[in-house]
């Protein structure tokens, strides 16, 4: 990126205002109680970290996979880095509820029951997540949804020791998600256990605009797949709502694909870097029991994780782009700034970030820490920083003004 010809990214505030008006005209829920926090569970001060079964295993899950994954999170050191949620996705329950109307773990794959699994996971110092759906059936149609059974199911989850609920949007009754999702929020609050509530509404009705009192995170996109195009398009869709993320409630561009094999190492580094700087949930989606050294280098990068878990909880924005070259930046605690230079084009290219685009006073002298090289650059920077960035690669820094 040369000189200052780069055009700024359009200001999305007006888009949000229009969308908000449209949504308010379609539902009365957010109009009648826009500010009341239904979900005062005190969770998610920083984005959640852990693992989820879907991206790698789909419906082919059983209790051994969940236990071995919990074991692997501990033995690899990932748990110590903050990856504490072990989240079971779709297909864990019998298709038919028991005589009392309760969900039951699938006998053939979860014979010990979900409570025993929660006990196992808790003994390792981890937390167990589960999955349901704000409809009649889940997306796989292999288990019932919770629509009309919210209180009963929330009670079951709490009694088993569940710590996190991902709540999908398939096979519903056509009513508004702004009506269906808060029913589960209230049921979880009544159930007597703090349970992280993840709204998997796919961004259909812009949950970033109404999700904060309802959930601890909300999907802003439909499902990710393990390709560069899918990944960057979700990053873009999620970026639009940056101003609406905050401690307690996060934008969610879907789970990580790092380690599943569909992208190059550089592309997975871009994936992890954008998710981290965007304060997205960091939910590993590969088989951690046999994660390669390369995968571990990415998901176990402490310095990048620290950006994600920064106490301010400010989601970075794309502050400037020129064609395929992008500058993402966001404020961190202690007057620091996280900077990500992304090259989406086919050739290596140089990218310059200017202080006035990234919220640093123009005369500040800045020290730069390269988070993937793990080194503090000797040079001190005034006014701008330039780096050469590989095709489908990135450079990520923490910038610290030193005068
Ligand atoms: C990964 O590890 C599990 C359990 O250790 C094993 O059953 C599975 O075959 C392994 N997969 C690959 C691809 O090596
Ligand atoms: C970067 O800043 C330096 C002064 O510190 C200036 O000499 C240089 O021209 C700037 N580079 C760009 C590309 O603006």
Automatic annotation (TrEMBL):
InterPro entries: Aldolase_TIM, GH, Glyco_hydro_27, Glyco_hydro_27/36_CS, Glyco_hydro_b, Melibiase_C
Main EC class the enzyme belongs to: hydrolase
CDD domains registered for this protein in UniProt: GH27
Transmembrane intervals: 12-31
Coiled coil: none
The Alpha galactosidase C-terminal domain, residue ranges: 322-399
Reaction(s) catalysed by this chain's protein: Hydrolysis of terminal, non-reducing alpha-D-galactose residues in alpha-D-galactosides, including galactose oligosaccharides, galactomannans and galactolipids
Family: Belongs to the glycosyl hydrolase 27 family.
Name listed for the protein in its UniProt record: Alpha-galactosidase
Organism: Actinidia chinensis var. chinensis (Chinese soft-hair kiwi)
């Amino acid at each position: 990126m040369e000189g200052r010809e780069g055009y700024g990214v359009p200001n999305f505030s007006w888009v949000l205002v229009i969308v908000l008006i449209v949504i308010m005209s379609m539902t009365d829920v957010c109009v009648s109680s826009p500010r009341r926090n239904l979900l005062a569970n005190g969770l998610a001060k920083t984005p959640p970290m852990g693992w989820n079964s879907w991206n790698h295993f789909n419906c082919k899950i059983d209790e051994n996979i969940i236990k071995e994954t919990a074991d692997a999170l501990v033995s690899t050191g990932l748990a110590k880095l903050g990856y504490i949620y072990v989240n079971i996705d779709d297909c864990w329950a019998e298709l038919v509820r028991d005589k009392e109307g309760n969900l039951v773990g699938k006998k053939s794959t979860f014979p010990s029951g979900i409570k025993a699994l929660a006990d196992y996971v808790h003994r390792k110092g981890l937390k167990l997540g589960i999955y349901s759906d704000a409809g009649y059936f889940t997306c796989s149609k292999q288990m019932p949804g919770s629509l009309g059974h919210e209180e009963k199911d929330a009670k079951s989850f709490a009694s088993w020791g569940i710590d996190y609920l991902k709540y999908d949007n398939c096979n519903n009754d056509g009513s508004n998600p702004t009506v269906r999702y808060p029913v589960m929020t209230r049921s979880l609050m009544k159930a007597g256990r703090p349970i992280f509530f993840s709204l998997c509404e796919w961004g259909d009705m812009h949950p970033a605009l109404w999700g904060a009192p309802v959930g601890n995170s909300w999907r802003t996109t439909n499902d990710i797949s393990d390709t560069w195009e899918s990944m960057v398009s979700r990053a873009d869709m999620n970026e639009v709502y940056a101003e609406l993320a905050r401690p307690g409630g996060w934008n969610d561009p879907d789970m990580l694909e790092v380690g599943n094999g569909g992208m190059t190492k550089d592309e997975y580094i871009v994936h992890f870097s954008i998710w981290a700087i965007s304060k997205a949930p960091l939910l590993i989606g590969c088989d951690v029991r046999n994660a390669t050294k390369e995968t571990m280098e990415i998901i176990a990068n402490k310095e990048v994780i620290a950006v994600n878990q920064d106490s301010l909880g400010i989601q970075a924005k794309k502050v400037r782009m020129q064609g395929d070259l992008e500058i993402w930046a966001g404020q961190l605690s202690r007057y620091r700034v996280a900077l990500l230079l992304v090259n989406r084009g086919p050739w290596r290219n140089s990218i310059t970030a200017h202080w006035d685009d990234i919220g640093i006073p123009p005369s500040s002298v800045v020290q730069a820490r390269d988070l993937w090289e793990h080194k503090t650059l000797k040079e001190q920077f005034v006014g701008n920083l330039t780096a050469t960035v590989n095709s489908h690669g990135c450079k990520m820094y923490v910038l610290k003004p030193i005068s």
